[in-house]
Each structure stands twice: as C-alpha cells, then as structure tokens.
Design brief:
With 260 residues, this protein is of the alpha+beta class. 19% of the residues lie in helices and 32% in strands. The chain has five helices and 15 strands. A five-stranded mixed beta sheet has the order 7-6-10-8-9. Strands 12-11-15-13-14 form a five-stranded mixed beta sheet, with helices on one face.
Length: 260
C-alpha cells in the first residue's frame, strides 16, 4: 500500500512540474512518452511516437496511440497486457516528457517568439503569455492561422476587446500560427516639439497626435493642419485636418508655422 501511495504522489508531482495530464491532450508523432506499470518495474520504458503513430512497448510490441488521449492509450496498453496473459490487473501510467505533436508557433512583435507546446487545452491568451506577451511595438490585433482539414483559415482577433468584453477565447491546436503585427504608426513633422514616428493609440485624434509630438512650438499653429494619406489605390492625398479627426495608419501630419 505504501508503495502505491508513493507511486501516486510521484505521478502527481511530475504532472505539476509540467508533464501533461493523461486526460488533457492528444498524442501524436514525435511525442516522447514515459510509461510505467505499477509493481512491474521491468515494463517501465521511455519511447517516442513514430511518424505513423506507433510506440513499441515491452511484451506487447507495437501499439498505435496517435490521435488518442493519453488516458485512452493507458487503457489500450493495459488491455494488451491482460489479453496477452502478461499482467493480470495492470495499472498503466503515461507521462508525456516531450511534446512535439502539439506545437504552436508565436511570431512577430512578441517578447519571446518561438514554438510552444500545448501541454494542456490552451487558448490564445495562454499562448501569448508563454511568449512573454506583445512587445512595445506589438499591435492589439493578433492574426491566427489555423490548420483545419488541410486548409489554412485566417482569423484576426482584437486581444484588448477580448479582455474587456470577457468574450470566449480562441482555442489553439497543434500547427496553428500566432502572429502579432507591428502596431500602426503615424508621422508628424513641422512646428512640433518632437517630430517623428509614433504609435497610434485607439481612436487617436489629430489633437492627441499633436500632444504625442510634444505640442506646438512657439511658432506653430493648429490652423491649417494637413494630413498626407494614401487612398485605397495607393495614391497620396493632401487633406485638411481638424483637431477631432481620427488619425489613420501611416498618416503624415504636418503642422504649419503661424503667419502672425
């Protein structure tokens, strides 16, 4: 009984340290599994799921596990041990020590871009947190490329709106790609204290853009503000701007010198 308790405790500790829970993931090619059978140390093995979805287990040989939850794979191995007459009442445990089949790529303007394992059912915010969140240049809108039935499906998600509204989050699966684009920018020059390129905040007005640029110089005026903006065809337009007009991506705001 004591050995059984210690075995259960060790299993729970391994799970809490990051190994995947038996009922929380689907096994796939490339995954490395540590398999043990209680009271049968000779059957303990560590194996990798092959490209065609099989593992090799002592006594029973090849067992197909790809596409199965780990708990179902445990039952399948136990059944094979019983039907072969090898173990009467086996208690099989699977720990995933390396998860390769359920990886999500996180790219773009994040602090730690890379490939991250879905060691549990993970949503978009979970994965962004693993990647250290968006960098200071990151946009609030995230693009997710899902792989569904051999096709790529694109989804644009406003992360800030998801948090504000509490709406249900996008669930990610292995092979998905999360891309955080660069935040939209505007340019301001002329009679402002800090001409240059700046991030566009939500619903930013021309007046707020002036404030980001440090405000007017002693010679600047809010009269006759101009915006250079490209239309849908890419043609550059010169627009008269009002202080409460909204700034758009890649706008160039020009502040004129006062004539009086």
């Amino acid at each position: 009984m004591k050995r059984l308790v210690l075995w259960i405790v060790a299993t729970l500790l391994a799970w809490n340290l990051g190994a995947a829970g038996a009922t929380e993931l689907t096994l796939g090619p490339g995954d490395v599994l540590k398999i043990s059978v209680y009271n049968n140390p000779d059957l303990a093995t560590e194996t990798r799921v092959s490209a065609n979805g099989f593992i090799t287990f002592p006594l029973v040989g090849q067992v197909q596990v790809a596409g199965m939850p780990a708990a179902a794979a445990e039952k399948k191995i136990a059944s094979a041990l019983v039907s072969g007459g090898f173990v009467k009442d086996p208690q099989v445990n699977i720990l995933v020590t390396l998860l390769q089949s359920q990886l999500v790529s996180v790219l773009g303007q994040v602090n730690r871009p890379g490939r991250y394992p879905l060691d549990a059912s993970r949503n978009l915010l979970d994965v962004l947190a693993l990647a250290g969140g968006a960098s200071t240049d990151g946009s609030d809108v995230v693009t997710v490329l899902h792989q569904r039935d051999g096709k790529t499906v694109k989804e644009n998600i406003d992360v800030v709106e998801v948090v504000r509204s509490g709406q249900s989050q996008t669930e990610l699966t292995g092979g998905d790609v999360v891309y955080v684009e660069r935040a939209p920018r505007f340019y301001i020059y002329g009679e402002v204290q800090r001409p240059g390129q700046f991030r566009i905040e939500r619903s930013m007005t021309v007046l707020q853009a002036l404030a980001v640029g440090g405000g007017l110089t002693a010679r600047g005026t809010e009269r006759g503000l101009r915006i250079q903006r490209r239309d849908a065809n890419g043609k550059l337009q010169q627009l008269d701007a009002k202080p409460d007009d909204l700034v758009q991506s890649d706008d160039v705001v020009y502040v004129r010198e006062s004539l009086f």
